[in-house]
Amino acid sequence: EGNLSKIFENLNYSKNFNFWINVHGVHDIELIKRLIDHFDLDKMVVQDIVDTTQRPKVEVSSDMVFFSVKSLLPQNGLNIESEQISFILKENILLSFQEKKGDHFEYIRGRLREGKGLVRKSGADYLLYLLLDAITDNYYTSLNGLESRLNELPQKIMDDPKPEQIFKLEHIKQSLFNLRKAINPLKEAIIFTEKGPSAHIHSDVIPFFADLKDQLWQLTDETDLSIHRSEGLTNLFFSYQGHRMNEVMKVLTIVTSLFIPLSFLAGVYGMNFKFMPELDWNYGYPAVLALMALLALGMLLFFKQKKWL
Amino acid sequence: EGNLSKIFENLNYSKNFNFWINVHGVHDIELIKRLIDHFDLDKMVVQDIVDTTQRPKVEVSSDMVFFSVKSLLPQNGLNIESEQISFILKENILLSFQEKKGDHFEYIRGRLREGKGLVRKSGADYLLYLLLDAITDNYYTSLNGLESRLNELPQKIMDDPKPEQIFKLEHIKQSLFNLRKAINPLKEAIIFTEKGPSAHIHSDVIPFFADLKDQLWQLTDETDLSIHRSEGLTNLFFSYQGHRMNEVMKVLTIVTSLFIPLSFLAGVYGMNFKFMPELDWNYGYPAVLALMALLALGMLLFFKQKKWL
Amino acid sequence: EGNLSKIFENLNYSKNFNFWINVHGVHDIELIKRLIDHFDLDKMVVQDIVDTTQRPKVEVSSDMVFFSVKSLLPQNGLNIESEQISFILKENILLSFQEKKGDHFEYIRGRLREGKGLVRKSGADYLLYLLLDAITDNYYTSLNGLESRLNELPQKIMDDPKPEQIFKLEHIKQSLFNLRKAINPLKEAIIFTEKGPSAHIHSDVIPFFADLKDQLWQLTDETDLSIHRSEGLTNLFFSYQGHRMNEVMKVLTIVTSLFIPLSFLAGVYGMNFKFMPELDWNYGYPAVLALMALLALGMLLFFKQKKWL
Amino acid sequence: EGNLSKIFENLNYSKNFNFWINVHGVHDIELIKRLIDHFDLDKMVVQDIVDTTQRPKVEVSSDMVFFSVKSLLPQNGLNIESEQISFILKENILLSFQEKKGDHFEYIRGRLREGKGLVRKSGADYLLYLLLDAITDNYYTSLNGLESRLNELPQKIMDDPKPEQIFKLEHIKQSLFNLRKAINPLKEAIIFTEKGPSAHIHSDVIPFFADLKDQLWQLTDETDLSIHRSEGLTNLFFSYQGHRMNEVMKVLTIVTSLFIPLSFLAGVYGMNFKFMPELDWNYGYPAVLALMALLALGMLLFFKQKKWL
Amino acid sequence: EGNLSKIFENLNYSKNFNFWINVHGVHDIELIKRLIDHFDLDKMVVQDIVDTTQRPKVEVSSDMVFFSVKSLLPQNGLNIESEQISFILKENILLSFQEKKGDHFEYIRGRLREGKGLVRKSGADYLLYLLLDAITDNYYTSLNGLESRLNELPQKIMDDPKPEQIFKLEHIKQSLFNLRKAINPLKEAIIFTEKGPSAHIHSDVIPFFADLKDQLWQLTDETDLSIHRSEGLTNLFFSYQGHRMNEVMKVLTIVTSLFIPLSFLAGVYGMNFKFMPELDWNYGYPAVLALMALLALGMLLFFKQKKWL
Do C237 and C268 fall into the same domain? Predict the structure, then answer.
């Protein structure tokens, strides 16, 4: 790890040990070429390792398995960082290539350093399982992050349906689609290693891979459900927006309908005609006030009956 | 049942009897391991039993059938509790593992206790059928619960289209999707037991399984139709919300259009110009009142013609 | 027909005659069992006949064909009554089982009674064709009924877009989905009888079945188009609802924008300030009236230019 | 052509000539039967020819090819007339059956009459190609007609989003769906004649059919894109309708918000209280007018800042 | 290149050299025919080359590969120019036919002219790879162009949701669909050349084609995601449009609800009744003003509580 060139000298390649070499920064092509050379691997894969924008792929040949997957590192916030990781499994050698020094495998590396039994003694294929399992865990973490974001939205929409929420919602939906796209290649890679001419995987490790595949299936299912949910939230948003509009309109309509007829009445008795007999009545003013109160009451009853109040 | 360890001592495993052992609380791994050991089963399944978050699966080996399904227990309300139940069928032994002591099989257990002939005498495969049938019945109950919830909605929407209804609707839709997801593994499990190297199922029990499969097909169909309906209800909601808005707007427009021109007229004759000949006319006031009545009538006719009244 | 028990005594089962026995009311299990017994049929089918809530199915054995289909009886109104009808074809015997005495086969029964040649003389397979053809005709009638309902909607929506129309529309859509679900099993049943080990169908009757299958394909196509249309009508509804709203808003805006500035002007000259020189002018009043007319004209021109008038 | 019975007498059936008999009006069953008889064809096809409501079909037997397709005749306007045309190809005989005397093949018939070389000399299979090519051309014309209708819509929607446009849009969408449904059977028919035991088609004519198939594939693609476009236009419509509403609302809000506060102010100084010191001030009136101007200015700035002006 | 006829004389066809002849302007049929003749190719392809409106196709025969693809040339703006390019690969000869002199292959032609080693020395199959790679690059450029257009939209929608944005959005969506349609034939062509009886492609060039295929797969994925995004933007637009409407309505409602009751109050004390005791009170005027202030404050508190302010 780290500075490959130094490690190389000390590398006594022997059948009795399992190697895991994890390369950070796939852009140092020379090092990768030397590595590929050293382990006598097909030179073809170099480009696949280096070109991190490529679609993940699996290639099984008689003496090695190569595949690349997208690993997701959920950061704080919505943005999920995606990184291409390539694996080469050949007998007891496992090579992994990462774009940058991320903490995808921190936990496993820790266990290796501490010399925790199981991992150290098992073969390269079991180690591969552990790494893929770590990646799958990261998928789960990403999904959970997105789901918790999704879970916050209904309450926010109910409080105040702002378009920013649709923006966030579409963002989450995009991330869910991306997650689904990332899962498939890993699933395919596992199916290939399981069903292929899998001399590369020992029979006692196969169940672990089968279990991993099951987890990925379930992950796909859950992602689909989350996508469904996010689509339902769009409906929720628009219903709340329409509701908000209805509320505003009701207030406007009630206030206007209440006071405009009354204002008209006041306007009538504010006219300056010489001969307006009502104006001279002793009880003209209270009579008009009473009429106004009656009118207002009628309106309120009408709104009550319409269930607007 | 219940406290397994006690039962174990008394368990004289004999080919002449059928056993049904129902384990509640799958988290007591030790007990499960002992059980698996006792019946000489593949140790692999232990993890599948214990990990209740896993996707349901089927595994058929030459001497046993293992599968897990999601059982739904419709509670009062919308929330459907889902529980993973695993089954192992080996010759005349049927093992079932539940997460918690639910009442999925109360009815069947009751019949067994009362010694009702058919169940007791038939083989473990028939018992398996009965258990799966009970689970299918629970699916139906869940679907019916959701459908009756769905049936209440149109009336509520017509009365008052509130966004809470969309919320409920999306909730039901989610539950319907979950139901669909739960049905499939059971269907698959049955297809496997039917078509697989089904030495595990006696030929006279197969028709029962076939019937169960038919029921599950129909359940899928009905769930799909309910999903369709719930999508139609979204349209219904938005049409009622728009209708409500139109109603409010009409009242506002009618009241405003009626009184604002009249108020203007009153305003004109409320001006304080020295030379306003109309003000001095003897019939000025009644003439203006008549003009106002005419204007209002014209407006009302216009609204009548627009079919707003 | 009718009272089976009486008929039984007189039933001299002979290879030289074709029998068509149509049973109404499938809930008299005893009778059905006797019938199944009498013709020496598989007892398994009894449950399939009796349980009318089951999904339609086909079962072909070496000596008989059993299948059940959903027959639709379009009633006056939108509600389509669905009834499960089961058929058993064995050599020259055709048994059909209906839930209740409906008029699905009135026409054919009539022709049989009148001794119309073709039907009487032909085999049980041809008779089966005629019955299925009658059911297919009912499908067509149902579809036509739904389509004529659908055809009424655009005009109603244009007249007044009320949410009840969306309700009706969704109802029709549901019925169309149900129709599609009903067609498929019949299509399957026919494909089975056509392609299966069809010793049960004589080669000269096969073309009729082929023709029936063609009709069902076309029916599926037409149902799909109707579903498409009904979805288009939802758009139509919402566009008319929005249009209606726009119309209401325009009237409100025009009336308000016309009179509120004029009212303000009148209000200004209704103020009681001591020193308002305009009030004392001789032509103050006509000048203000002219100003008002000008303002109104300007507004009207503005609306004209906006194409709101 | 025309009156078949007369032609029959003169019909010396000889292997050395190619015949094309085009029958108008398929309802004269007697004539069709005589024709079928005369050329010794399978009587089965008669019904397929006569029943023009049937779904198009292909039937290939050892000595003839029968198929029917829907030909579209784009009329002026949106309505596309659809007509069932059946073809029988047997050695050097080509029979075609049309519902009514349309101008589907005018051009080809013209070329035949003028004795234009290629057509006259080539076999019946090449003639069939020409006829199908003419039908395909009509499909293209139909599609182009629909597309030009579709192209007019955006401008109309932008000018004034009226629901009639949604009506037209849905109409066009329906026609596009119908077109898609019409293309498929012709494609199938060609695939059958290409790949089937095509002793009926000479190897030098096959490339023409291959080319035709390519054209139909492309037609399907283009129809799909047009359907996509028509769905996008629905969004466009609703966005313009909402825009229109927003515009109307803005005018209402600006006018109202500008003048209602001013009117209130005027109303205050129109009150008849005895002690209102402002009324007696010399500069009360101009001060109030100035205040009003200030208020209006403030409002206008607010609207400016909200970008409503 | 350019003027073909001149080049022809000097064309000494020899097995030792690789030829790439790029024809601009496919409408000079005579020249194309001579070319096809000269290299002894199937005359059938001439029509496929000349008819540029045809759907792209692949044809593999024993001695040559022919295929045509749509090349996209992203121009400034949204409009993507599409051009049909046909390729013929036969041993060491590569013919390409373009509609017009575009700059699809400028870069490669440049490298050829400068005599850059690799290209000149490699076979016609490698050259084909380079050309297809250039076309794929153009696809990427087109997609990037569309995506950057898409990326501008959210901000524009947030600033001011105008229907023109929906228009642009639908335009981009159409282009994305077109891009997807263009990718597929190229993918198919490559699969054919890879998997077909590919004597035409040397084994050491195949990996390059495989890589190209991977790129096209990824391109399809990215295009799909962009289509998803553009659909999400439609929701965003409508949510902003509704938001804008809500904002306008709120201002209208607040202003109206604030001043209409106050105006009414002013109107009441503007009435001319003889006996209105309040008018004669010394503190009538300030009392009314205080009442008005109180009313306005109450309204503002109500709006505050409704979160409209």
Answer: no
Closest residue in B to C244 (Cα) is: B246
Boundary-marking domain end, from D211, D242, D273 = D242
- Provide the CATH number for the domain around residue A77: 3.30.460.20
Whether D272 and E267 lie within 8 Å, measured CB to CB = no
E strand or H helix that includes residue E135:
helix E124-159
Interface test with chain C among D177, D252, D278, D283, by most C beta carbons within 10 Å = D252
Structure tokens given for A19: 């190697």
Per the structure, the complete domain to which residue B109 belongs is given by: 4-241
Collapsing DSSP states into helix, strand and coil, what is residue E238?
Answer: helix
Number of H helices, E strands in chain D: 10, 5
Tell which of B183, B264, B292 to mutate to test the C interface (max C CBs under 10 Å): B264
Cβ within 8 Å, pair A280-E274: yes
Q: What are residue A52's phi and psi, to 5 degrees?
A: -80, -5
pLDDT score of D257 more than 80? yes
- Rounded to an integer, the average pLDDT of B164-175 is 88
Q: For residue A299, what is the domain's CATH number?
A: 1.20.58.340
The total number of structural domains in chain A stands at 2
- B171 and B198 within one domain: yes
Q: Given pLDDT bands bounded at 50, 70 and 90, which one contains residue C104?
A: low
Going by their DSSP bridges, the two strands D80-90 and D65-74 should be labelled as antiparallel
pLDDT at C53 over 90: no
CB-CB under 8 Å, B274 with C170: no
Residues 6+ apart with CB under 8 A from A28: A4
pLDDT band at D13 (very low <50, low <70, confident <90, very high): very low
Q: Check residue B74 and give its pLDDT.
A: 67
Tell me which of B221, B241, B261 is where a domain ends: B241
Does A163 lie in the same domain as A145? yes
Q: Judge whether residue A16 has pLDDT over 60.
A: no
Residues C271 and C209 both lie in one domain: no
Listed residue (A188, A66, A58, A71) closest to A137, CA to CA: A71
Residues D291 and D185 reside in one and the same domain: no
How many Å apart are CA A229 and CA A16, to the nearest integer?
A: 52
Which secondary structure element, helix H or strand E, spans residue E227, and what is its range?
A: helix E206-268
D228 and D100 in a common domain: yes
* Chain E environment of A263 (Cβ under 8 Å): 260, 263-264, 267
Residues D208 and D290 in one domain: no
Same domain, yes or no: D187 and D234: yes
Q: Is the four-CA dihedral D224, D230, D231, D233 of positive or negative sign?
A: positive
Q: How many whole angstroms separate alpha carbon C87 and alpha carbon D90? A: 41
Partners of A59 in the β-ladder: A66
Q: How far is residue D36's CA from residue D29's CA, in Å, rounded to a whole number?
A: 10
ipTM: 0.81
Question: What does DSSP say about strands A93-98 and A19-24: parallel, antiparallel, or unpaired?
Answer: parallel
DSSP conformation class of A65: E
- Nearest 5°: the CA angle C223, C226, C230 is 140
* Residue range A47-68, pLDDT digits in tens: 777 776 666 777 777 777 888 8
**Cβ proximity of C152 and C126 under 8 Å:** no
Which chains have 3 or more CB–CB distances shorter than 8 Å to chain A? B, E
Alpha carbon B227 to chain centroid, angstroms: 9
Q: CA dihedral defined by B222, B228, B234, B235, rounded to 10 degrees?
A: -130
8 Å CB contact between E108 and E134: yes
Q: Round the average pLDDT of chain E to a whole number and report it.
A: 78
Residues A187, A220: Cα–Cα separation, whole Å: 10
